[in-house]
């Protein structure tokens, strides 16, 4: 039993303890597309230069600048066309250009030695055997030089870079098909409560009169996916410690078992608080209260799984409490496991539209909806949605932000400026 007189742990203290107990997962090699949004775990150096060879930036004629220096509309220069160079024609049909000649060349095709400029089609009569050029072309014009973008050995992507589409494009451009990254954590999600039923299953009059659908595991699994993790939903677990421990053993014993466990429900002061009852004897999970509303009851620690210690989050059952606890503690932990910075949600200051109150000594997270200014970007106002009740899932879904009321504030007036955490944005 937790001591009800024990002082509440602050949100910041709890987060610090959670992050201290969480480490980056080992790195793995993945195909490029599977590495999108993951943290790179190697310094990637260019195995080749880009462009690989001098090539043309235009469809036209490879020429020597000196040969066309005197060209004008009134006195065009006419030169023989000795060949036709397309991209990807190996072996290249013209590798050397004699003075006084030209070769047709397409965008991306290799420049023949001796040529130092490209005359675009638009400056010519597009001749086939010989071409008439009506303007001078400077040396280097429309030539893309080998290595001007990336030199061999250049550092392309540094350890810790979050790989986006542009990084994947660069890695592929130097011939890489795989890259070492911090992999996505597998998150076991367990909903506890004998009252719970699977969505999609009809409620039976009589037997299910006090039943409710399991919203939490979808809420938490969705949040885990959004955080970049792989959620593994375990079926509903009734309020029996033996059933809970058996379900946990089963899931954690599986090959490719979880890297982190999240349960919801069963941790408060009730007579059937299954998670607390099952794990308190082991002593590896702390149960207590946080100076936070919603989300006061919490459990955090580790459980053994196949010789490993897996971080364990016992979140409160009320849906809003569960979600907020995920946002505040589980998401940062998952990000750390993925080698990302734990904090990611943009926090802004905005004008509160309506007065709110908050319990003394607790950091309150109210749900809100932001108004975006005429620049399409700046948050100007935030309006509270619904009340502070942690069962209000309708209001939770309607919100797009959290309004933070600090521990030492019990009332905020309409028009005051508050801190706002924007949800669904990284
Ligand atoms: N005497 C006290 N009672 C309670 C306290 C307290 O300090 N003293 N704290 C309250 C607070 S705050 C919260 S939060 C809850 C947390 O309780 P539990 O974590 O033990 O959660 P449960 O009792 O199992 O469930 C609470 C509530 O949430 C519903 N629930 C649970 N799981 C789901 C789910 N998967 N999907 C949808 N809804 C779920 C459940 O039916 C209950 O209504 O304790 C307060 N009580
Ligand atoms: O803290 Mo409970 O999480 O307020 O509903």
From TrEMBL:
It is an enzyme of class 2 (transferase). The keyword Transferase applies. InterPro entries: MoaB/Mog-like_dom_sf (IPR036425), MoaB/Mog_dom (IPR001453), MoeA-like (IPR038987), MoeA_C_domain_IV (IPR005111), MoeA_C_domain_IV_sf (IPR036688), MoeA_linker/N (IPR005110), MoeA_linker/N_sf (IPR036135). The keyword Magnesium applies. Residues 188-336 form the MoaB/Mog domain. It comes from the Bacteria. Pathway: Cofactor biosynthesis; molybdopterin biosynthesis. Catalyzes the insertion of molybdate into adenylated molybdopterin with the concomitant release of AMP. NCBIfam families: Glp_gephyrin, molyb_syn. Belongs to the MoeA family. This is Molybdopterin molybdenumtransferase. The lineage of its organism: Bacteria, Bacillati, Actinomycetota, Actinomycetes, Propionibacteriales.
